[in-house]
Amino acid sequence: MSVTTVVGTRRTAKADAIIVFVAQDEKHFASAQKSLTSDIPHLLPLFASGDFTAKANQTALAYGGSATASPRVILVGMGPMASITPEKIRRAAAAGTKRAGASGCSSVAIEAMPMNGIDSATVAQAITEGSMLSQYRYDKYKTIKSESNGLVKKVTLVTDRPHLKAVTKGAGIGEHIVGGVTLARDLANAPNCEIYPETLAKKVQEVGKKAGFKTTVLDKKKIEDLKMGGLLGVNAGSVRPPVFIVMEHLKGPKNEKPLVLVGKGITFDTGGISIKPAAGMSDMKSDMHGAASVIGTMYTLAKLGVKRNVIALVPSTENMPSGTAYVPGDILTFMNGKTAEIDNTDAEGRLILADALCYADRFKPSAVIDLATLTGACVVALGTVTTGMMGTDEKTKNRLRAAADRTNEYVCELPLYDEYEEQISSDYADIKNSGGRNAGAITAALFLKHFVSYPWVHLDIAGTGIQPKAGHYTPKGGSGVGVRLLTDMIRHW
Ligand code: BES
Ligand code: MN
Ligand code: ZN
Prior knowledge:
Blueprint: E1 2-7, E2 17-22, H1 26-39, H2 44-49, E3 59-63, E4 72-77, H3 86-102, E5 107-111, H4 120-133, E6 154-159, H5 164-189, H6 197-211, E7 214-218, H7 220-225, H8 229-235, E8 243-250, E9 259-263, E10 265-269, H9 289-304, E11 309-319, E12 331-333, E13 339-341, H10 349-360, E14 367-372, H11 376-382, E15 387-391, H12 394-407, E16 411-413, E17 431-432, H13 440-449, E18 456-460, H14 462-465, E19 466-467, E20 477-478, H15 483-491
Parallel strand pairs: 1-6, 2-4, 2-5, 5-6, 9-11, 9-14, 10-11, 13-17, 14-18, 15-16
Antiparallel strand pairs: 3-4, 7-8, 8-11, 12-13, 15-18, 19-20
Helix pairs in contact: 3-4, 4-5, 5-9, 6-9, 8-10, 9-15, 10-13, 12-15
The structure holds ligand BES, manganese (II) ion (MN) and zinc ion.
Ligand BES binds near residues 347, 377, 379 and 462.
């Protein structure tokens, strides 16, 4: 999929369809109707019918005939002008592109001009994201790709001469963000038979080479030398060895302390000996979405050449039951010497993250942000719309909140009051790996807090990472959440 920018008009732009946004409120609708019907007389019957009212995401398709270089004209409603935000633009671009795809178009041109005070670079970025992300399919294992024959593969942004530079820049940023989100979705959606720890590591090395970040893979021997008892404990039941992946993008000032990202990389979570019910277990192929998010983010940062120091860590293993698996009652010793009693082998994410959080210490980070499909409790609390945010660093939480506003990857904070600590106290070890059903997202984060010695934020993406159905520009399954959020936060740091 590709995006380009041209100087032109709705009449001259050449694609299978030209997409035009129309605002709903009377004044804007009337002037759009006037200019559209004078540019393209073939739109007269459409407007005369009154069918198209320009409510948000409404689409109407007409044929431009001799008036347009593109055979089809697709109008997309924006709702009232004053309500237009980058998110509304992403959704409208997605709606228009989906309508084009459904009509058999493989290329679209989309008008990109400032709207409601939103500058043309931001508009172009939003159009690129919404349009391209709406065309994502995970169909690599479908031998008959009926649907993808109708997919839009080429997006052209159409603007005027004064906005060309800004639109080109915004589209370029959007394209690299889409690349990172797509990578994260592909990794999260890949089944365990394809993406397991060693193949995940191989994939990261390939991506790093292509995008331009450095990758180091620590194998089982190194993990043993480092005494990562959490990662080794969870891995004990698995035939496939664990890996610990380190990615480095050090493009900031030499003396700038790095931001460290950590992603949970459980390539499949059966629950282990505390095995999960069969129904819906296949979703647990995406239990490495935290890893996918940080890998996608590193791809985008490298492609954009963001001048910051960012390191990403991925502890990765399967969680399998077997004769050699860890069992409830076991006590694991982490890299920093702390111990945890295993109450439930299905609370495995926090165990591998604990070692990664210890490892992060060596980079003297300015802050650490971990992303993990950590708890079902977070899904119960916030559903699949909002990521659970917990942590010790107000500044980073505020930065994430600002980035969430801009990207619509919502975050909501849950508290880490000391009173919850007793739920994870153990009679035999320093702490216990499960705090029971109540406040499960919080007790999981409190477990992690025992391993941090720097400003820290934890993002529980169990709900937002794995979607039960498609959204405006997100597919069912792995959503790629986190890439747009983190990239936006780092770019605005
Ligand atoms: N990977 C799961 C959490 C999860 C659940 C992610 C649903 C996405 C969708 C995690 O490892 C897990 O099993 N957590 C347990 C913890 C419990 C045993 C304390 C949970 O949430 O039930
Ligand atoms: Mn689990
Ligand atoms: Zn898990």
